[in-house]
Structure formats: C-alpha cells, structure tokens
Write a structure and sequence with these properties.
By secondary structure, this protein is α+β, with helices and mostly antiparallel strands. Among the domains are: about 130 residues; about 40 residues, no CATH class. Helix content is about 50%, strand content about 10%. It has twelve helices and seven strands. A four-stranded antiparallel β-sheet has the order 1-2-3-4. Helix 3 packs across helix 11 and helix 7 runs parallel beside helix 9. It is globular.
C-alpha cells in the first residue's frame, strides 16, 4: 500500500494506537514530521512535534531509557497514521524550548532508573565478583599486565558482569563462552562510552581475568571464556569503532565528548542535546515536490546486530520480542514486520 503522505509532510497519529512495549499506553493527539518511509514493511518514522513531546509522561520516558531509544522519534505502521497530511502546529523556537525541558526530565529519570536498578542487584553476586577481583589485583598475573590493561581491568570486568546479568540474564556461576560472545559482540561495544582502543584494553583485561580464574580453578568455564574473549576481541573493537552500531546513549556521549562538552555540567549537556536534536530535524529532506520519492535504504535490517532484541508483528497480530538472529528468516520471508528495535 502506497501512503498518501511523503517525507517532510506533517501527519497525525490515529488516537488510540497502542505503543509497542507499553501495554495500556495509547497515542493521543500525536503529530510529527515524516522522516522515513519503508514501503516494504509499511512503516513510517515520525520526528514528533513539540506538543507531542510535551505530553509525554514519566512512564514513556522510562520506556525510552530502558530501550535506549530517542524519544524524539517513533516508528508507526501506515495504518496507524491518518491518511492525509496536516498543517504543522509548532515552530522551531517552541520545539527548542520543549526539547530543553524534556531533556532535563529524561536525564533526571535516567539517573533515577539506574539507581533503582542498582538497588535491585543481587548483593551476594556483587560480593562474589568483587572478592575475586580483589584477589586478582593482588596476583602476580595481574601485576604482569600492561598499565593500559590494568587501568581498564576493574571497569571491564564490572561492565561484563552487569551486562551478562542485565541483558543475558545469567549470574557468575552460569557464565559460559557463549555469554562472553553475546556480551562482547553486542551490548559491550554498543553501549560502553569509550574509545575503541580502550575497549580493546578492556577485552585484554577480561581475557586475563578468565585466565587467572582458570589457573586457580575458580570457574569451570574459565578456560573457554578466556579463549572466546581473545577470539572475539577484533569483532568487539570493530563494532566499537563503527558509530552506526552504537546505541543512542553512547552516540550522544561520544559526540558530546568529541565536541568538548563538560559531561559534569547539566546545563552544558542539556544545551548540547537540544542542539543535536534540532540539527537532526533540520537535515530532513525538503518536500516541495509532490512527486518526491521516499528515501529507501538498501536493506532495512543491514545495521541490526544479530543479538539485538527486536519486536515484530505477525499476520495474526501477535507481537514477538526476541533476538534478531532468531527472527531474521521470518522478516526476510515477509511472515512478520519489524515494529521496534
């Protein structure tokens, strides 16, 4: 089905559309500018307007924080959109003011969210890993490491442990080589705001930690985990070097750091985020011609990592959330449509 709207048009979302991942949360009086059209999957990406963003509840912001998605945009199906364009109802100045206010709410909730997550962590699990790391730091194997690797050791092991639990659902005793591969080729390089070189040192530290555990018989899978960490290091560094693979939070932090933003200054951070969002909106293609063709990507899935969790909708309306590699075949064959990632 070819839509009546085109890139650059302002459209209205039908009232009552339920948002994916937020049962019971319905769009009401949502409007925005069409930024991307995917005719194959009948999906449209909207850059939401000031009035829509200003209506967001804390629940919606927390959803965006949890999914690491930009609250400024949202994918809808063609059927979710009123068929004819509507006049723009905000202005650039109004949008800038609303974004500044929304950014402050986002970061305040972001801080609260992660504080709550930390409080829910298993204290015993933290104690086990911390105890092992303290022993490792005193070992001759650790002291023989380069200063660069030692400098990243504490952070590297801690991040791996957190991501193994938060994204793969496993505790220390259940770590395996497959978990090392999953974390180190997906969440770690995509989310950790550090240079590719530093992430390479983190991988060296992880391999050294696993090797020390193997030598001291502290984990039955330690040798295999060490070998896997060494094996996937080039892949991890490659992903960490590619901005198109980064999550929203890492993209923002790395861009801010490269721009000289003081990350400890909330006003400086808010101003930078508002500026980058406005720049993104200003780069949308002009839509003066009614014959303008949608800008299509070669493949709508080419930048999705195999372990990235996505949500799809099947023909019977059933929603499934799982890793891309498990749903790729059905997506390619047209059995289901990509809803969010």
């Amino acid at each position: 089905m070819k839509p009546l709207f085109k890139i650059g048009d302002y459209v209205r979302v039908k009232d009552g559309v339920e948002l994916v991942g937020l049962p019971g949360y319905f769009a009401k009086n949502w409007q925005g500018e069409v930024a991307e059209i995917d005719e194959d999957n009948e999906m449209v990406l909207l850059e939401l307007d000031a009035q829509t963003i200003d209506s967001f509840t804390d629940e919606y912001f927390r959803y965006c924080i949890n999914e690491e998605t930009d609250f400024v945009e949202y994918y809808f199906e063609f059927s979710d959109i009123e068929p004819t364009p509507v006049p723009r109802r905000d202005t650039d100045k109004l949008l800038e003011r609303v974004l500044e206010k929304a950014n402050k709410r986002y970061f305040e909730l972001d801080k609260d969210y992660y504080e709550e997550e930390e409080e829910e962590d298993d204290d015993d699990e933290d104690d086990v890993i911390e105890g092992l790391m303290n022993q490792w730091f005193e070992s001759s194997q650790f002291k023989a490491l380069s200063e660069e690797v030692k400098d990243k050791a504490d952070f590297g092991v801690d991040v791996f442990a957190q991501y193994a639990f938060n994204y793969e659902g496993v505790n220390f005793k259940d770590w395996t080589a497959d978990i090392v591969k999953a974390v180190c080729t997906d969440s770690l390089p995509r989310k950790v705001s550090a240079s590719a070189n530093d992430i390479g040192f983190m991988m060296d530290a992880l391999a050294a930690f696993f090797d020390w555990m193997h030598l001291n018989q502290l984990h039955p899978q330690a040798e295999k985990m060490r070998d896997e960490a060494r094996k996937v290091k080039p892949i991890t560094v490659k992903i960490a070097s590619d901005p198109s693979q980064w999550g929203f939070a890492k993209s923002f932090v790395m861009g801010a750091m490269n721009a000289g933003v003081d990350m400890d200054d909330r006003e400086d951070v808010d101003a930078y985020l508002a500026q980058t969002q406005l720049q993104a909106l200003s780069r949308l293609p002009a839509s003066n011609s009614f014959n303008q063709k949608p800008v299509m990507k070669e493949s709508p899935y080419k930048n999705i990592n195999s372990n990235t969790k996505i949500t799809v909708r099947y023909g019977d309306g059933k929603l499934i959330t799982d890793k891309f590699k498990r749903l790729e075949k059905d997506l390619s064959s047209g059995k289901c449509k990509l809803i969010s990632r």
